[in-house]
Design a protein that fits this description.
Shape: globular
Low-confidence stretches: none
Bound molecules: acetamide
Number of strands: 15
Protein name: Putative amidohydrolase
Radius of gyration: 18 Å
GO biological process, one term: asparagine metabolic process
Keywords: Hydrolase
Order of helices and strands: EHEHHEEEEEEEEHEHEEEEHH
CATH architecture: 4-Layer Sandwich
CATH class: Alpha Beta
Mean pLDDT: 97
GO molecular function, one term: omega-amidase activity
Number of helices: 7
Strand content: 25-35%
Organism: Desulfoscipio gibsoniae DSM 7213
Length: 274
């Protein structure tokens, strides 16, 4: 990895898809003007986070207006745009999908959320699988100057997936996500910092801004954690762009001091598992 600047755009999401798309574009342009080379959007940035709405807001890769905006903007701004997530239609299925575009507007990668958010919390039941299908691929994006692993929200609770991405050589784990007012205070910082410390990589998580009138209230507090586990940037609850310089030397230094990846005992784990 080369040193590079990454921005997370914490933006509000409304019921107006057209507004959401142009609002995201404005925010990405602002981040690029501030010098960002990698820009990250939140989970479901073009659609309210309500499972029953996903199919009607969904679009296909080939015809989607959100996808077209992201490709055009990445090209014009000469950036890598990790496009949060949108409901993606493919045949009979809808997925929670992150499309990433490169500086020539080319598609660098597509992550379909692997672990769907089917949970039963106090006063909050969510069943993504009622309208979404699960992804089944590991998503590593080679942006040239850095390697990015993508997971979406609930995926972060599965350390096995993060470890596979890290073994594939990523420098930064990018996580568009929409925790809520129950899981956010309890686990947002904890899970993001844990994945960074486990794997000695940067973690950048992008949340929608909080809207207390929404059916599902996103936590906010988009965050970037360094490979030591220090929080190097953290948004509040409103709209905000946070920006961080990612430094490969920081990864080397932490891995040099605590050689976790080289001290793994995969031979022993295989024996124990049998
Ligand atoms: C989540 O997976 N949206 C929490």
């Amino acid at each position: 990895m080369d040193k590079c600047k990454l921005a997370v755009c914490q933006i509000k999401v409304t019921s107006d898809k057209g507004f959401n798309i142009s609002h995201a574009e404005d925010s990405v342009r602002r981040a690029a003007r501030q010098g960002a080379q990698v820009v990250v959007l939140p989970e479901m940035f073009n659609c309210p986070y309500e499972t029953h709405l996903f199919p009607s807001y969904a679009e296909s890769y080939s015809k989607g207006e959100t996808v077209q905006m992201m490709s055009r903007v990445a090209d014009q701004l000469d950036i890598v745009l990790v496009g949060g997530s949108i409901p993606e239609r493919d045949g009979d299925f809808v997925y929670n999908t992150c499309f990433t575009f490169g500086p020539r507007g080319d598609l660098l990668g597509r992550h379909r959320k692997v672990h769907l958010f089917d949970v039963d919390l106090p006063n909050l039941k969510v069943q993504e699988s009622s309208t979404l299908g699960p992804g089944n691929e590991l998503t590593v994006i080679d942006a040239g100057f850095c390697k990015i692993g993508v997971m979406i929200c609930f995926d972060v609770r599965f350390p096995e997936l993060a470890r596979l991405l890290v073994l594939a050589g990523i420098d930064v784990l990018v996580i568009p996500a929409a925790f809520n007012l129950i899981t956010g205070p309890a686990h947002w910082d904890l899970t993001m910092r844990a994945r960074a410390v486990d794997n000695q990589v940067y973690v950048a998580a992008a949340s929608p801004a909080r809207d207390d009138r929404a059916d599902y209230v996103a936590y906010g507090h988009s965050i970037v954690v360094d490979p030591w586990g220090d929080v190097v940037a953290r948004a509040g609850t409103g709209e905000e762009i946070i920006m961080v310089e990612l430094d490969p030397e920081k990864i080397r230094e932490v891995r040099g001091r605590l050689p976790l990846l080289t001290q793994r005992r995969t031979d022993l784990y295989e024996i124990i598992r049998k």
